[in-house]
Amino acid sequence: MRAFVALLRKELRSYFGSPLVYLVAAAFLAYTGYYFHSDLIYFLTFGFGVNIMENFWQLLFMDVRLVLIFAVPLLTMRLFAEERRLGTLELLLTYPLRDGAIVAAKLGACLVVIGALLAATLVYPAWVYHLQPFPLRPLAAAYAGLLLLAAACAAYGVFVSSLTDSQVLAAFLTSMPLLLLWLLSWNEAAVGLSTLPLLRAISLFNHFQPFAVGIVDLRDVFYFVYATALFVWATLRVLEARQWRAGR
Amino acid sequence: MAALLGPNGSGKSTVMRMITGYFSPTSGSVHVAGIDMGVDSLRARRRIGYLPEQVTLYPDLTVRRYLGFVAGVRGLRGGAARRAVDEALARCHLGEVADRLTGKLSKGYRQRVGLAQALLGDPEVLVLDEPTVGLDPVQTVELRELIRGLVGRTVLISTHVLSEASQLCSRVVILARGRLVAEDTTGGLVRRLAELTRLTVRVEGPAAAVERALAALPGVAGVERLAGETPGEVAFVVLAPDPRPVQQRLAAAMVAGGWPLLELRAAAPGLEDLFVRLVTAADGG
């Protein structure tokens, strides 16, 4: 546990010691702020002030989700790829640390950063609430959904990062499938009726959509938890596989 | 203190990586301080400090922060961690660079930071992979001094420099092409090397008669004629395990035969000669 905390602190220090996290944060807040502004205007113009959850927050959270899938690969690409490139992974793996603690600390540090980014967006609902109070529990559900989605994406990003020593490649290979899943989710009308249920079942974003309108379905929660666990498991297998390709 | 000696590519680093739990062996087992690495790797790894061949540090951390991180990973915290870091800094003479980024350090300092992190948590077993490779002579001497001060622990050092092994270690294990070819005390190894001493002899005289005279000398293990001599001269290589008395007898024999001695040189054998010999011996057997 102590070892985990030490590693978590080191990872956070690495995050906040590099300019990347500030650039990502600035872009994230600029884009989500823009979406907040434009979605709010859209709601005021066309939403006739009814059903703020469906006509405003849903749109905003679907947009935040989109910004998130651009931000996550930039935050996860470094985690293992850099250790591989520097060669620090060898020493790290010989410390009295479980592989699980290493993966947990890296994923955990990434989620702390993502949590901080999402926490910063709380300014938007706080401001709206200040002008016109609205029910808060659906909003809490949406944020929980964003965190779950981010955890699944980040776990995937950590897995990809563990496969390569190139951060650029890690970011690319993380963002491409996420983008594909996003495309699938908005292009589903073009897909045949028989394949649609299957696509819906695997699509990351269809599982997020209920959260955006304030619905917490356990199936969706499990979907994200399973996806996260799957990629953590896969990362552990990659760390174990170091001996299969001996040498450097 | 033991040395793992072998030419490049002989498997020294692989052995060390298996001992430190980075690789697991495809067959056989690794025991560290009595603990089977395959059974309880975590407990075994707690007993080991490891300095990899390429000392790799996190360039965005200062030396103190980096060592603090390693102390935490090794299970120390709070005051104990701080004390351990201070002790490691002092022991490896890193006080003046404690607050510099590890990415900005010279090779010599990086190597010392690598040693400092291996010492954190006071492990019983230290595994140092080519600790002095790439250092300048002054740094090499300093680092050897540091390593010599690590008494009371089991230290395994890999090197391809014989003098390093003989200065630091009491036992030597020799690897070649991934196989253990010899295990000996340092003194025994030096003796084995002496057995390979060759004398180069150049004289003016008839080849056959000189060769007979050389082979007849007591203490000579073999005579080989060298090609490419100038007319009137002959040259031989004489194998003499104990060269000094042979040299004296040889000079006397040449004078007695009336053959002017032009050159008599003892070539100290290199470690490579020993490696070659051991490998050929191993292949033959």
Which key phrases capture this entry?
heterodimer; A: 248 residues; mainly alpha; 12 helices; B: 285 residues; alpha/beta; Rossmann fold; 2 domains; six-stranded mixed beta sheet; four-stranded antiparallel beta sheet; 11 helices; 42% helix; 21% strand; elongated
Tell me what the structure shows.
The complex is a heterodimer of chains A (about 250) and B (about 280). By secondary structure, chain A is mostly helical. Chain A has one domain. In chain A, about 80% of the residues lie in helices and about 0% in strands. Chain A contains twelve helices and no strands. Chain A has helices at about 1-15, 20-45, 50-75, 80-85, 90-95, 100-120, 125-130, 135-160, 165-185, 195-200, 210, 220-240. The mean pLDDT of chain A is about 85. Chain B is elongated, with a radius of gyration of 25 Å. Chain B contains eleven helices and twelve strands. Chain B has two domains: about 1-190, P-loop containing nucleotide triphosphate hydrolases (Rossmann fold); about 195-270, 2-Layer Sandwich (Alpha-Beta Plaits), CATH 3.30.70.3100. The model of chain B has no long low-confidence stretch (mean pLDDT about 85). In chain B, the strands form three sheets. Chain B has a six-stranded mixed sheet, with helices on both faces. Chain B has a four-stranded antiparallel sheet with strand order 10-11-9-12, covered by helices on one side. In chain B, strands 2-3 form a two-stranded antiparallel sheet. Helices cover about 40% and strands about 20% of the residues of chain B. Chain B has about 280 residues and is α/β, with parallel strands linked by helices. The interface between A and B is medium-sized, with 25 and 32 residues.
